[in-house]
Amino acid sequence: MALDPQVKALLEGMAENPGPRIIDLPVPDGREMYRGIAATLDLQGVAIGKVEDRNIPGPEGEIPVRIYTPVAAGSDALPVLVYYHGGGWVIGDLDTHDALCRTLANEACCKVVAVHYRLAPEHVFPAAVDDCYAALKWVEANGASIGVDATRIAVAGDSAGGNLAAVISQIAKVEKGPRIALQLLIYPVTDTDLDTGSYKANESGYFLERDGMIWFFDHYLKGADRNDFRIAPLKASSLAGLPDAYVVTAGFDPLRDEGRAYAEALKAAGVPTTHVNYDGMIHGFFNLQGVLDVGREAVKAAAKALKEGLE
Q: pTM to 2 decimals?
Protein backbone atom coordinates (compact mmCIF):
# COMPACT_ATOMS: atom_id res chain seq x y z
CA MET A 1 0.00 0.00 0.00
CA ALA A 2 1.43 3.35 -1.07
CA LEU A 3 0.25 6.90 -0.68
CA ASP A 4 -1.65 8.31 -3.61
CA PRO A 5 0.76 10.66 -5.50
CA GLN A 6 -1.51 13.66 -5.01
CA VAL A 7 -1.77 12.93 -1.28
CA LYS A 8 2.00 12.54 -1.09
CA ALA A 9 2.50 15.93 -2.78
CA LEU A 10 -0.02 17.56 -0.46
CA LEU A 11 1.64 16.19 2.68
CA GLU A 12 5.12 17.13 1.43
CA GLY A 13 3.95 20.67 0.73
CA MET A 14 2.51 20.94 4.22
CA ALA A 15 5.76 19.61 5.71
CA GLU A 16 7.79 22.19 3.80
CA ASN A 17 5.63 25.02 5.11
CA PRO A 18 4.77 23.93 8.64
CA GLY A 19 2.34 26.00 10.63
CA PRO A 20 0.80 25.48 14.05
CA ARG A 21 -1.26 22.38 14.61
CA ILE A 22 -4.94 22.94 15.26
CA ILE A 23 -4.57 21.16 18.59
CA ASP A 24 -1.88 23.63 19.68
CA LEU A 25 -4.20 26.61 19.19
CA PRO A 26 -7.02 27.96 21.32
CA VAL A 27 -10.26 26.34 20.17
CA PRO A 28 -11.63 29.45 18.39
CA ASP A 29 -8.39 29.79 16.44
CA GLY A 30 -8.44 26.08 15.62
CA ARG A 31 -11.93 26.45 14.20
CA GLU A 32 -10.81 29.36 12.06
CA MET A 33 -7.82 27.38 10.81
CA TYR A 34 -10.08 24.47 9.87
CA ARG A 35 -12.35 26.80 7.91
CA GLY A 36 -9.27 28.09 6.12
CA ILE A 37 -8.21 24.57 5.16
CA ALA A 38 -11.66 23.90 3.70
CA ALA A 39 -11.57 27.15 1.75
CA THR A 40 -8.16 26.28 0.32
CA LEU A 41 -8.35 22.56 -0.42
CA ASP A 42 -11.99 21.74 -1.11
CA LEU A 43 -14.05 22.50 -4.20
CA GLN A 44 -15.28 26.07 -4.46
CA GLY A 45 -18.39 27.46 -6.12
CA VAL A 46 -20.23 24.15 -6.52
CA ALA A 47 -23.52 24.95 -8.26
CA ILE A 48 -26.66 24.13 -6.31
CA GLY A 49 -30.37 24.65 -6.89
CA LYS A 50 -31.07 26.40 -3.61
CA VAL A 51 -29.53 26.85 -0.18
CA GLU A 52 -31.52 27.88 2.88
CA ASP A 53 -30.08 28.57 6.33
CA ARG A 54 -32.54 28.34 9.18
CA ASN A 55 -32.82 27.44 12.85
CA ILE A 56 -34.91 24.55 14.14
CA PRO A 57 -35.98 23.72 17.70
CA GLY A 58 -33.50 21.71 19.73
CA PRO A 59 -33.36 20.25 23.24
CA GLU A 60 -31.40 23.23 24.61
CA GLY A 61 -32.16 26.01 22.13
CA GLU A 62 -32.17 26.41 18.38
CA ILE A 63 -30.05 24.25 16.07
CA PRO A 64 -28.69 25.84 12.88
CA VAL A 65 -29.29 23.78 9.75
CA ARG A 66 -28.58 24.34 6.07
CA ILE A 67 -30.99 22.87 3.53
CA TYR A 68 -29.66 22.09 0.06
CA THR A 69 -31.89 21.56 -2.96
CA PRO A 70 -30.09 19.94 -5.91
CA VAL A 71 -29.74 21.56 -9.30
CA ALA A 72 -31.91 18.93 -11.00
CA ALA A 73 -34.77 19.07 -8.49
CA GLY A 74 -38.25 18.95 -9.98
CA SER A 75 -41.55 19.74 -8.34
CA ASP A 76 -41.95 16.38 -6.55
CA ALA A 77 -40.88 15.77 -2.97
CA LEU A 78 -37.31 14.48 -2.84
CA PRO A 79 -35.64 11.96 -0.57
CA VAL A 80 -33.47 13.56 2.09
CA LEU A 81 -30.05 13.11 3.63
CA VAL A 82 -29.47 14.40 7.16
CA TYR A 83 -25.77 15.24 7.30
CA TYR A 84 -23.62 15.58 10.43
CA HIS A 85 -20.30 17.33 9.78
CA GLY A 86 -16.94 16.17 11.04
CA GLY A 87 -14.33 18.09 12.99
CA GLY A 88 -13.86 16.05 16.14
CA TRP A 89 -17.07 17.37 17.74
CA VAL A 90 -15.03 20.58 18.25
CA ILE A 91 -14.04 22.47 15.10
CA GLY A 92 -16.38 21.75 12.16
CA ASP A 93 -19.36 23.76 10.98
CA LEU A 94 -21.75 24.19 8.07
CA ASP A 95 -19.19 26.10 6.00
CA THR A 96 -16.39 23.54 6.34
CA HIS A 97 -18.65 20.91 4.75
CA ASP A 98 -20.58 23.07 2.33
CA ALA A 99 -18.92 21.74 -0.83
CA LEU A 100 -19.41 18.12 0.21
CA CYS A 101 -23.08 18.65 1.00
CA ARG A 102 -23.65 20.43 -2.32
CA THR A 103 -21.97 17.60 -4.20
CA LEU A 104 -23.95 14.90 -2.41
CA ALA A 105 -27.23 16.72 -3.06
CA ASN A 106 -26.52 17.08 -6.77
CA GLU A 107 -25.04 13.62 -7.34
CA ALA A 108 -27.71 11.75 -5.36
CA CYS A 109 -30.55 14.03 -6.47
CA CYS A 110 -31.77 14.43 -2.91
CA LYS A 111 -32.20 17.25 -0.46
CA VAL A 112 -29.53 17.53 2.19
CA VAL A 113 -30.19 18.94 5.65
CA ALA A 114 -26.80 19.69 7.23
CA VAL A 115 -26.89 19.99 11.01
CA HIS A 116 -24.66 22.24 13.10
CA TYR A 117 -24.95 20.48 16.44
CA ARG A 118 -23.54 22.02 19.61
CA LEU A 119 -19.76 21.77 19.81
CA ALA A 120 -17.36 20.89 22.59
CA PRO A 121 -15.81 22.06 24.83
CA GLU A 122 -18.63 24.55 25.35
CA HIS A 123 -21.15 21.71 25.11
CA VAL A 124 -19.83 18.27 25.99
CA PHE A 125 -21.29 14.81 25.36
CA PRO A 126 -24.17 14.09 24.90
CA ALA A 127 -25.12 17.54 23.58
CA ALA A 128 -24.11 16.72 20.00
CA VAL A 129 -26.00 13.41 20.09
CA ASP A 130 -29.13 15.05 21.46
CA ASP A 131 -29.08 17.78 18.80
CA CYS A 132 -28.49 15.31 15.97
CA TYR A 133 -31.39 13.09 16.98
CA ALA A 134 -33.65 16.12 17.45
CA ALA A 135 -32.76 17.30 13.95
CA LEU A 136 -33.57 13.90 12.46
CA LYS A 137 -36.98 13.89 14.15
CA TRP A 138 -37.61 17.45 12.95
CA VAL A 139 -36.90 16.46 9.35
CA GLU A 140 -39.37 13.59 9.57
CA ALA A 141 -42.06 15.75 11.18
CA ASN A 142 -41.58 18.68 8.80
CA GLY A 143 -40.87 16.89 5.55
CA ALA A 144 -43.80 18.35 3.65
CA SER A 145 -42.86 21.93 4.54
CA ILE A 146 -39.30 21.54 3.19
CA GLY A 147 -40.22 19.53 0.11
CA VAL A 148 -38.93 16.12 1.15
CA ASP A 149 -40.39 12.64 1.26
CA ALA A 150 -40.06 11.82 4.95
CA THR A 151 -40.41 8.10 4.22
CA ARG A 152 -37.02 8.20 2.46
CA ILE A 153 -34.45 9.47 4.96
CA ALA A 154 -30.75 8.68 5.12
CA VAL A 155 -28.14 9.85 7.61
CA ALA A 156 -24.47 10.51 6.92
CA GLY A 157 -21.40 12.05 8.41
CA ASP A 158 -17.62 12.05 8.27
CA SER A 159 -15.25 11.30 11.13
CA ALA A 160 -16.96 12.63 14.27
CA GLY A 161 -20.01 13.15 12.07
CA GLY A 162 -19.77 9.53 10.98
CA ASN A 163 -19.75 8.61 14.65
CA LEU A 164 -22.91 10.65 15.15
CA ALA A 165 -24.61 9.11 12.12
CA ALA A 166 -23.86 5.61 13.43
CA VAL A 167 -25.03 6.54 16.92
CA ILE A 168 -28.24 8.16 15.68
CA SER A 169 -28.99 5.05 13.62
CA GLN A 170 -28.73 3.00 16.81
CA ILE A 171 -30.87 5.43 18.81
CA ALA A 172 -33.54 5.47 16.08
CA LYS A 173 -33.67 1.67 16.27
CA VAL A 174 -34.10 1.75 20.05
CA GLU A 175 -36.69 4.53 19.89
CA LYS A 176 -38.47 2.91 16.93
CA GLY A 177 -38.05 5.88 14.66
CA PRO A 178 -37.52 7.80 12.56
CA ARG A 179 -36.97 5.08 9.96
CA ILE A 180 -33.58 5.42 8.28
CA ALA A 181 -33.06 3.88 4.84
CA LEU A 182 -29.26 4.12 4.77
CA GLN A 183 -26.37 5.17 6.99
CA LEU A 184 -23.42 6.59 5.06
CA LEU A 185 -20.42 6.46 7.39
CA ILE A 186 -17.31 8.24 6.09
CA TYR A 187 -14.17 7.24 8.04
CA PRO A 188 -16.26 7.15 11.22
CA VAL A 189 -15.11 7.15 14.82
CA THR A 190 -16.63 3.92 16.15
CA ASP A 191 -14.49 3.19 19.20
CA THR A 192 -12.28 4.87 21.79
CA ASP A 193 -9.36 2.45 21.44
CA LEU A 194 -6.25 4.39 20.44
CA ASP A 195 -4.04 1.30 20.15
CA THR A 196 -5.31 -0.34 16.96
CA GLY A 197 -2.92 -1.28 14.18
CA SER A 198 -3.97 1.71 12.09
CA TYR A 199 -3.41 4.09 15.01
CA LYS A 200 0.09 2.70 15.44
CA ALA A 201 0.92 2.75 11.72
CA ASN A 202 -0.52 6.22 11.09
CA GLU A 203 0.17 7.89 14.43
CA SER A 204 1.51 11.07 12.86
CA GLY A 205 2.21 12.66 9.53
CA TYR A 206 -1.06 11.80 7.78
CA PHE A 207 -3.31 14.80 8.47
CA LEU A 208 -5.26 13.33 11.40
CA GLU A 209 -2.91 12.24 14.18
CA ARG A 210 -3.23 10.24 17.36
CA ASP A 211 -2.53 13.35 19.42
CA GLY A 212 -5.39 15.06 17.61
CA MET A 213 -7.84 12.33 18.53
CA ILE A 214 -6.75 12.54 22.16
CA TRP A 215 -7.39 16.30 22.02
CA PHE A 216 -10.83 15.82 20.49
CA PHE A 217 -11.87 13.13 22.95
CA ASP A 218 -10.64 15.18 25.90
CA HIS A 219 -12.76 18.17 24.82
CA TYR A 220 -15.84 16.13 23.95
CA LEU A 221 -16.06 13.50 26.66
CA LYS A 222 -15.02 15.26 29.87
CA GLY A 223 -15.12 12.12 32.00
CA ALA A 224 -18.00 10.36 30.21
CA ASP A 225 -18.10 6.56 30.07
CA ARG A 226 -16.09 5.69 26.96
CA ASN A 227 -17.91 2.38 26.66
CA ASP A 228 -21.27 4.12 26.12
CA PHE A 229 -22.57 3.11 22.68
CA ARG A 230 -23.41 6.79 22.05
CA ILE A 231 -19.64 7.40 22.11
CA ALA A 232 -18.36 4.07 20.80
CA PRO A 233 -21.08 2.53 18.60
CA LEU A 234 -18.88 -0.52 18.03
CA LYS A 235 -19.45 -1.41 21.70
CA ALA A 236 -23.25 -1.64 21.34
CA SER A 237 -24.76 -4.84 22.70
CA SER A 238 -26.39 -5.60 19.35
CA LEU A 239 -26.13 -4.16 15.84
CA ALA A 240 -28.96 -6.28 14.45
CA GLY A 241 -31.80 -4.42 12.79
CA LEU A 242 -29.81 -1.31 11.93
CA PRO A 243 -30.19 0.48 8.57
CA ASP A 244 -28.22 -0.64 5.54
CA ALA A 245 -24.73 0.84 5.66
CA TYR A 246 -22.09 2.19 3.30
CA VAL A 247 -18.80 2.55 5.17
CA VAL A 248 -15.77 4.39 3.80
CA THR A 249 -12.25 4.08 5.21
CA ALA A 250 -8.81 5.33 4.16
CA GLY A 251 -5.58 3.35 4.16
CA PHE A 252 -3.44 5.97 5.91
CA ASP A 253 -6.01 6.95 8.54
CA PRO A 254 -5.72 6.18 12.26
CA LEU A 255 -9.46 5.40 12.17
CA ARG A 256 -9.17 2.81 9.39
CA ASP A 257 -9.30 -0.30 11.58
CA GLU A 258 -12.28 0.75 13.69
CA GLY A 259 -14.23 1.71 10.57
CA ARG A 260 -13.49 -1.68 9.07
CA ALA A 261 -14.36 -3.39 12.36
CA TYR A 262 -17.71 -1.63 12.44
CA ALA A 263 -18.49 -2.66 8.87
CA GLU A 264 -17.58 -6.27 9.69
CA ALA A 265 -19.68 -6.19 12.86
CA LEU A 266 -22.66 -4.83 10.93
CA LYS A 267 -22.32 -7.62 8.37
CA ALA A 268 -22.04 -10.22 11.13
CA ALA A 269 -25.27 -8.85 12.64
CA GLY A 270 -27.08 -9.32 9.33
CA VAL A 271 -27.06 -5.68 8.25
CA PRO A 272 -26.53 -5.23 4.49
CA THR A 273 -23.22 -3.36 4.43
CA THR A 274 -20.80 -2.14 1.80
CA HIS A 275 -17.27 -1.32 2.96
CA VAL A 276 -14.95 0.60 0.63
CA ASN A 277 -11.34 1.23 1.65
CA TYR A 278 -9.33 3.75 -0.37
CA ASP A 279 -5.83 2.40 0.13
CA GLY A 280 -3.82 5.49 -0.79
CA MET A 281 -5.97 8.07 0.97
CA ILE A 282 -5.74 9.92 4.28
CA HIS A 283 -8.36 10.98 6.77
CA GLY A 284 -10.47 13.87 5.51
CA PHE A 285 -10.11 13.14 1.80
CA PHE A 286 -13.83 13.68 1.13
CA ASN A 287 -13.18 17.33 2.02
CA LEU A 288 -10.12 17.57 -0.22
CA GLN A 289 -11.95 17.34 -3.53
CA GLY A 290 -10.25 20.48 -4.76
CA VAL A 291 -6.84 18.78 -4.83
CA LEU A 292 -7.51 15.02 -4.89
CA ASP A 293 -8.95 13.24 -7.92
CA VAL A 294 -9.73 10.18 -5.81
CA GLY A 295 -11.60 12.39 -3.37
CA ARG A 296 -13.98 13.49 -6.11
CA GLU A 297 -14.38 9.92 -7.35
CA ALA A 298 -15.09 8.64 -3.85
CA VAL A 299 -17.76 11.25 -3.18
CA LYS A 300 -19.48 10.34 -6.46
CA ALA A 301 -19.38 6.65 -5.56
CA ALA A 302 -20.87 7.34 -2.14
CA ALA A 303 -23.56 9.54 -3.70
CA LYS A 304 -24.45 6.72 -6.11
CA ALA A 305 -24.89 4.33 -3.17
CA LEU A 306 -26.93 6.99 -1.38
CA LYS A 307 -29.21 7.48 -4.36
CA GLU A 308 -29.76 3.74 -4.69
CA GLY A 309 -30.42 3.41 -0.95
CA LEU A 310 -33.09 6.11 -1.10
CA GLU A 311 -34.94 4.69 -4.10
A: 0.97
